[in-house]
Amino acid sequence: MRRRIYLLLFLLALLQFSAFTAEAFQLQVSVSVNKRRVTVQETVTLTVSLQGSGIEKVSLPELFPSSFNVISKSDRPNLVQDAFGKPVGGRLIKYQLQPTFGGKFRLGAFSITYAGETYRVAGEVVEVQGPNPPPSKKREAENFDTVQNIPVYGSTVVKLAAEVDRSRAYVNEKITLSIRITHNSLEVSEIKLTEAPRLANFWNRELDLAKHVNPSREIFVGGRPFVTQLIPRFILYPTTSGKLTIPALSYSMNVLTAKGSKTMQAMTSPITIDVMPLPEKGQPPEFKGAVGSCNFRAELKEKVTKLGAPTHLVLEVETDGNIDSITPPPLPQIEGAKVYNLNRVSVKQEKELPVACWEADLVPTTAGKLTIPAISFAYFDPKQKGYQVIKSEPMMLEVIAPINKAKNEPNRRSFFSFLFAIFQLKVVRYGLLIILVGSGLAVGFILAKRQPEKSPPSPNTSKTPKKVSGQLNETLSENRPKSVAEELRRIVNSSFGKLHRGDERAYAGELLRTMRKIFETLFSVQSSELTAERIEELLLAKGVEIETCQKTKDLFQECEKICYTPVGLLPDAEEDRDKKYARFTQARETIFKLIEMIDGKI
User: Which tens digits make up the pLDDT trace of 326-361?
Assistant: First the structure.
């Protein structure tokens, strides 16, 4: 009997220990107010008590509407003991608040996540006697009442509305699309799109919800308090002018009420945007479509370089406009240098506005001090309703000529160089010439005496060479290319041998000569007038696809860069045969597409 009693007491102690342990990991929250009815001249004290391990590090959301002014605030630790006598962290937060207008308000309602669980506090309702809300809030409440199809679950009302920061904009001007949620529940969370929006004629980018949420505030609808919050969701850039429509957006959300949590769906109404075209008057030739507020910078990474060695030209545009569609400014003609491989590079976002960056290889072709002219960047500023042009400062580049090592080496003459120097003397040179001519005449006279006389050739013998010559000419005419296109194909195919032997300059020269001949045949463009930009312009005008235009432009720049680079500065060709053949195959495919245009013309 005693054993059973001891066992029962042990089980009760164990259950109590488990309850105490579970309680130790739970959060205890209490919210209270010192008054439930006040006037606008009085103050009310809101007290929030929290107990739990590490609760001093937990951040709390807004505990009261913005219509209350904070007279004083205190947030201090409140240490207590658990059931085992161990200290447990706590916080005691007190606000002394003064209302600004009359109505019923809920103070201290919030929701937090602690130890993997979500704790929701309903707060306390305080009635304020005083004047009605300002007229602006009345108008907002009236707009709320006029919207139809408001989801209603009992007394809980949730409404979504789409808003834009401007209903009239220029083409490619930034428009922020936000979702306004207005409700009278305890909390609305997990707001998600049910399907991707079809934003036709808009370049769009979705915002990160965690980083773009405005604080909530309280409004009144029919004398009842509601909470409203604006959530920016999309950045839009219209791509064409006219009346453009932003379609309705459908969202699902989790709504917390006094009876529990429910999943609801709501839909916004469509919005019409009046998009104006960019003015043609005053549009500078450098303009490439940038719209917004912009800053531009150009610089050389290396101010000193060797002849033929590339330096890096950096272009940066900082803008609040469409950073994804922005293009680099046109580069001026640089005397004594060539520009290759202008490509966009990624940059670490450290500034407030996004930055687009491009880098190009600038290869000097002459030694000395070169001046890089000012580079102009043009954009349209919607605030000033006009075009703006930013010019960089001219840049100086010092180009060092390669050192001729032969001039710096000591003059060491070998025996053969000594003989060659003696041979340079006119007396010795003419004397040797007379001896050689005399010896030749003597040898010829002796051989003529020893050679027997031969009968004259028959008349038929003289015809044989003519016949053979005719056959040879026919054979050569059969092997000769029948058109310019065949000749160019032959040059391209034979260039692989030079690449395989490691002669990069000869290989690039063959391809460059072929491309110049193609454009001279098709467009009557001289070699001196052919540039990468000219190639792109001519091919696009002829209807060639963009990919082929870009490949031709890149191949021309690569070959021209190799040909302009001095031999001593060319990189060592370490590619194996397969890599070289793959590179050659890609180049041949690009050039052969251009040669097909010649076939069609001829």
Answer: 888 888 888 888 888 788 887 766 667 788 999 988
pLDDT in tens, 493-507: 888 888 877 788 888
Q: Give me the amino acid identity at 57.
A: K
Tokens found for residue 82: 């658990």
Two structure tokens written together for 99: 């209302």
How far is residue 179's CA from residue 194's CA, in Å, rounded to a whole number?
14
Pairing between β-strand 175-183 and β-strand 202-206 as defined by DSSP bridges: unpaired
pLDDT above 90: percentage of residues in the chain: 14
pTM over 0.85: no
CA proximity to 206, closest of 176, 243, 183: 176
Tokens 């001007």 belong to residue: 173
Report DSSP state, residue 483.
S
Which structure tokens are listed for 73? 């605030």
Distance of alpha carbon 250 from alpha carbon 267, whole angstroms: 4
Give pairs for 114-122: CB < 8 Å, separation 24+: 114/27, 114/52, 114/55, 114/58, 115/25, 115/26, 115/27, 115/52, 117/27, 119/27, 119/29, 120/186, 120/187, 120/256, 121/29, 121/31, 122/186, 122/258
| Residues 178, 412: Cα–Cα separation, whole Å | 83
Q: Give the DSSP per-residue string, 349-373.
A: --SSS-EEEEEEEEEESS-EEEEE-
Secondary structure letter of residue 523 according to DSSP = H
